[in-house]
């Protein structure tokens, strides 16, 4: 026996990277809409450059995405053709509450997702819902300063209460915040934060962290109260930190990086902040404004499972290192000389996937759910010989084969409990990091380029048939 029966095979998307239709159906503007493609993107998404609306000098890919808002029936049918057991998607907060602080939800937004979930169910696909995937209504940023402000906890509670009530029985798997540790790397995406001149970044980030953690614990409580069948998880941008060498200073650097990145999951999985975090906050004079009620809700509402994205491991070195650094990723580290890299400079490390899962399972002893993994690569559309087009993406198949094989070893040999595996972007979508369309992850090619040209037509790549076979054989046949 290899993969468990009922293993949740599938794929994962995020609203802002695929839906488009940013101003339709009563949707309000969100932080993710105003993140431009091109050279200013990193400065905007990391909160260094303020961009509170559209300007004529930039291209904003989220406005249209791959127009899944109008194509979801066709796209979900393609997922079903591959045999998906689950489809991970995210809710656009500003479709439900256009301003974030509205007294009543927007029925058109609620109806949109209800129809989408029903469409999944008609295909026997279990929806797996990320409540927020990098999105925050612009009004909450302009009026309250985003997740800096404690008030967002209440608006989030209003959002989740609405979702859990409306979709009761239709959705059972929920993630509270996508890659919660992204606050440290891309604060505009992670928490709707654009820094003010002179603002103490670290202090602001930690306050936002605390507010999201408390909001997440409330969501876990509310979700369980409304439907005890709900399974609610946290979500980590994962990838173990390797020490660059066995020099104790390098090992210590890796330990510090690990402690920091996992500290938020520590809270969500164990119910309290780790000692090293509390000491660090005290030493730096950062006051989280923790109340007695916060402490209780965190302690009593830990998550049911740990979900995470995995693309790569990271390598840490002491500050005085002369090792070359990596570029082009939200995580800055040094280059691992033993690993090959993708076209976007991300280290490829299937064994690191196994190492990462073991580390998380050892630490938390909770079921894992892999909700993102995959290779972003350039694809070339070529005639398929039957009058249509395809992509011969053997490089993508190779990447996925090695990772699924490592996943199998982790389950069968290491005894780690893993509920499922969803690849990132089963259909090509806008890259979160770069804003490009040309960084493609999909089994399904979408005809659209980095400037917004193209028919938006969908084509099956070679990997489409391969993944279909993997699912049909429950991971037995990876050839
Ligand atoms: P892209 C890095 C940078 C931004 C978001 O990333 C990231 C990461 C990797 O940890 O996280 C996730 O599109 C995220 C997705 C994103 C995916 O990685 O830059 O949850 O939204 O698309 C892949 O190649």
Could you please describe the fold and organization of this structure?
The structure is a single chain. The chain is α/β, with parallel strands linked by helices. It has a single domain, classed as TIM Barrel (Alpha-Beta Barrel). It contains 15 helices and 14 strands. The protein has helices spanning 15-18, 41-45, 68-81, 93-96, 107-122, 138-144, 151-166, 187-191, 201-226, 248-270, 275-284, 292-300, 350-364, 394-412, 462-472, and strands at 8-12, 86-90, 126-132, 173-177, 231-238, 241-243, 305-310, 314-316, 368-372, 382-383, 389-390, 418-424, 444-446, 458-460. The strands form four sheets. The protein has an eight-stranded parallel beta barrel with strand order 1-2-3-4-5-7-9-12, surrounded by four helices. The chain has a two-stranded parallel ribbon with strand order 6-8. The chain has a two-stranded antiparallel ribbon with strand order 10-11. A hairpin with a 5-residue loop joins strand 10 (382-383) and strand 11 (389-390). The model has no long low-confidence stretch (mean pLDDT 97). 2-(hydroxymethyl)phenyl 6-O-phosphono-beta-D-glucopyranoside is lined by residues 14, 17, 178-179, 237, 309, 311, 330, 372, 376, 424, 431-434, 439.
